[in-house]
Amino acid sequence: MSTENELFSAVDALLEQVAQDPLPHPAERRRLREAAGLSQDQIAAALKTRRETVSGWEAGRTDPRPPKRAAYARLLEGLAERFPPPGQEAAAADAAAGAGAREEAEPAGGAAAEPTAPPAGGARAARPDGASVPAAAPAAASVPSPAPDGRSVPRPAVRTTGGPERRRPAPVAGEARFSHGPLVVLDADADRQVVAYGVGGIVLDVPAASLPALVEWALGEAMLGAPRLHRNGRDSDPVLVLTDAAAERYGLPARLSPQERLAGRLPDDHKAVRQLTKADWQLTRRGLGPWARIYRPAQGGRRSCVQLCVLGWDALDARSWGGAAELPPAELARLLGTYATRVITPRGSTAVNGLELMTALHPPTRAGEPDASGRRHSEHNPGSLGTQPVDCAPPEAPDGHPLLAHLPRFHQRGPAEMLLEEAYDWARPLTDEECLKPYVVGIDVNMAFAAGANGAVVGLGAPTRVSRPAFDARVPGCWLVDLSHVELDPRLPSPFTPTGARPEGPAWYATPTVAYAVELGWSVQPLEGYLRAETGRYLDAWYGRLRDAYVATMADLGVTTGMEPQAFLDAMARHREADPELALVLTAIKATVKGGIGKLRERPRGGGWRPGQPWPALQRPTWRPDIRAAVISRTRVNMHRKMRNLAAATGRFPVAVLSDCAVYASDGPSPLDFLPYEDGKPLKGGFQLGVSPGMVKHEGTQTVLWAEGVREEHGDCLNLARYIKDGRITAQDDGE
Fold this sequence. Notes:
Low-confidence stretches: 89-153, 159-174
Structural class: alpha+beta
Helix content: 25-40%
Shape: globular
Strand content: 5-15%
Number of helices: 22
Mean pLDDT: 85
Strand order of the largest sheet: 3-6-5-4-7-10-9-8
Largest sheet: 8 strands, mixed
Oligomer: single chain
């Protein structure tokens, strides 16, 4: 009887669950929030819960319980009415935007174009061991399914690796084209048979015998790509990652020659380039290089672009991707697929991806209201940077910029002529008291530049010069201010210079730096300013997506939010061994943050450029040195504020700071030996151990004897923070 009652209770629980307010799939919950431009923090505040809880709902780890479930369901229902799935509005948006055909600014991704209808084909699925698929699978696959534009798309059966054969669930309307994921890794066997390894363990035979045919396959039966991240954006194009064997199968060299490496591409008369040209395919100005973009001009408002990633040509830089390029194809597909799902489908270096993510989350245009004839036209998307570049202010211009062409040759600009907002690189000698302690311990701020971007109010348009403006912390821009009168404890670096030295006179500063001087209680009287009236929190969605990607990946590696400090330190000590492939994803996510911010002020690259001449990056709307300066300014100020609060509470001061790493003399080898915790709670406004961006982790520990030894050998200017991790004195790193 007890067993029967238990069964009935279980059934009643299921019925109660079904009767609750329905919720969309977790991925759709996230899509709706991002389409509305809302952050998880905003959702959490409205529902009176924690951001981590909302993150769990969107990841599918948990579901909300009453009464929050009803409120959450109502929110999602309202958002669904305003932001339908991409497939339902793709035609209208594509027709209105028409921007997919424009040549994209180099080097952020080359040209983009709109596709013609892809050709039908006959791809078949294959087992990893080469065995054929049972006859029933091809029969099922031969039934066409409708694509968003009305075409019939072949749907080949797929086989997953590492388990029994299973078919993927039927894709929702509007995403049928992407049912095999955003990318595949192509490899060829000794018989020149090419196999595509995709996300989720799928393996597809590739019937294409030439490079043009491969492009056609990718746009047709392969069903590759990813839905747009914003309803006004555009879907991600298929990415084909080529191993050495696959590259040679399609007539490409496994390695570039020294001349080709210098040029970053194959010559235009190469056989593979001629094949593409003969088949009416085009390449962007970057040509056929490590990240090659192959496209045809727009037809019918549809994109027709494929991205190649050639591993043997160093497409996956080891500084950002570690040893990813050496992984077996299936494992590499998993790694890149995870990055594509959590961050963005890769289309270049991690720096390029960071910049592209900004645009994907804030598309420059949107579909306007219908005109008298019922046609929609492209219009500026509020909150974006638009489609046209804007001139920077003269102090924001890096050396060699056309705005500075009038300066004499070899002229060195000082702080009163140029905006110098950079990360910290500061060190001081240890005091006698600090020398008596046994250890120096480094702590590192998680995703420091991402945290600096969160909530940053930046200018969206061009600056206006103003003489003797009254300072307003709400106005983004740069200000010529004399902060040399501000006196701070010399055991702390100055918050106003990257070197930590006290300013010697008037200098240009971004708004957050001047605002911090006001926060410290000092008066400021700007002499001049270049200010921006149109403002917005342009990077909030960018921060939110990268934060979620970082936190989710760390959770997969065994480091979760809310851990006790010692448990967090223990988990961090072994997290990279938990899953080495996901650890590489983590490295790429962090590189995406730093590289994306750096790309906002990309300098000239390659030969032929002369100071005073423009370079290609200046033609991008996302070439915005002022936004980069604001983010770095906020990051440095945040670091100083926490160091100041720690010093006020404990009397402990850093001995070295490099970017987001601070080193302290300590009685023990752990951060817990000098970071104050009372009843398990950290110092308010100070450093806190944890996984979230802005919190800190253990960077490394060395002895004071080591510190004094390397200082004696290399001088007091040696920055201990640069070498605290493993104690080895190596090449310098600027932290960006």
